[in-house]
Structure to design on (337 residues):
């Protein structure tokens, strides 16, 4: 909630800094930057009530290009710093910008604990399935068999799946979207902000230099309707250019059925973003066997870490009287001679 008393209408440009964004020509980080600024304008809070925290990587240049408060931290460590920031200043809207390497590799431990704690902040994970800033090494999300500088014969590891990882770590809000869906990305970011707790937004983002075309199979405009599925609470799981395909419950997984768009079968699954069984099934769908889910996958209400820690502090204040001499001599003491 804003601390301002005036109602002001903002524009995306109000959240720009004076620094000129510098990414490779055509990089989709530009689109994400614009989407974040547009979302902040729609949220309606002034720039001094937002803070953007990043780690290391191409995406982590973000704070320089935002007119908000910002902190460019160290590799894999934006989350503990952002958590401390939110706890010390609860009124700030805290946004964390990280990547598949920064967030899942060196920062994977911090990501796991940030998601389970449920501090009221927003994590944006840009996933291009490669280390871009350090020139093309494979990352935790790189496709199995990917040939690159650190895997000249192809990677032998199964890739991590950010959305599934977030679900299994207990995140209270999980969304997935491509940077090519700018309008939808803005809407997801606004919903992430409105969620009370840690929101995790996995963003597919193409790297034209070191991993170009990694997502073409489901993001190219002429085929994406057949290879993506829009996930919406209370809506049937339907996809396809003609909206003539859907998901029905099979034996332990979804089955894909085709039908007349004017006559949707009753057994097509209606999505529930609070149903843990459906959430896991959707998050675990792998392309090309299944379409890639886009939208809000999970949204549940649960207590936040920052609220609980402030409640604990207030409770402690009522139990202890300020007595410095008693505090110094309490507990285990030693006499040094």
């Amino acid at each position: 909630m804003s601390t301002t008393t005036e109602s002001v209408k903002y524009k995306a440009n109000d959240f720009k800094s004076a620094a000129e964004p510098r990414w490779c020509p055509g990089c989709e980080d530009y689109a994400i930057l614009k989407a974040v600024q547009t979302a902040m304008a729609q949220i309606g809070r002034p720039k001094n009530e937002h803070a953007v925290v990043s780690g290391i990587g191409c995406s982590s240049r973000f704070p320089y290009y935002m007119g908000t408060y910002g902190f460019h931290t160290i590799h894999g460590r934006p989350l503990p710093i952002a958590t401390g920031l939110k706890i010390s200043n609860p009124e700030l809207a805290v946004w964390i910008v990280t990547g598949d390497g920064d967030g899942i590799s060196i920062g994977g431990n911090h990501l796991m604990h940030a998601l389970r704690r449920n501090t009221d902040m927003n994590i944006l994970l840009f996933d291009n399935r490669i280390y871009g800033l350090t020139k093309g090494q494979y990352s935790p999300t790189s496709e199995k068999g990917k040939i690159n500088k650190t895997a000249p014969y192809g990677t032998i590891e199964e890739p991590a799946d950010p959305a599934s990882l977030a679900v299994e770590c207990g995140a209270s809000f999980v969304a997935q979207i491509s940077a090519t869906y700018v309008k939808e990305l803005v809407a997801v970011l606004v919903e992430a902000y409105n969620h009370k707790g840690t929101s995790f937004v996995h963003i597919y983002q193409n790297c034209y230099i070191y991993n170009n075309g990694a997502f073409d199979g489901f993001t190219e405009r002429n085929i994406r309707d057949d290879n993506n599925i829009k996930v919406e609470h209370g809506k049937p799981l339907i996809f396809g250019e003609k909206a003539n395909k859907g998901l029905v419950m099979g034996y332990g997984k979804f089955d894909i059925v085709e039908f007349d768009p004017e006559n949707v079968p009753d057994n097509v699954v209606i999505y529930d973003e609070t149903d843990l069984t459906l959430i896991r099934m959707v998050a675990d769908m792998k392309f090309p066997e299944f379409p890639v889910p886009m939208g809000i996958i999970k949204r549940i209400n649960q207590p936040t870490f920052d609220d609980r820690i402030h409640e604990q502090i207030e409770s402690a204040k009522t139990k202890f009287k300020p007595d410095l001499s008693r505090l110094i001599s309490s507990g285990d003491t030693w006499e040094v001679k």
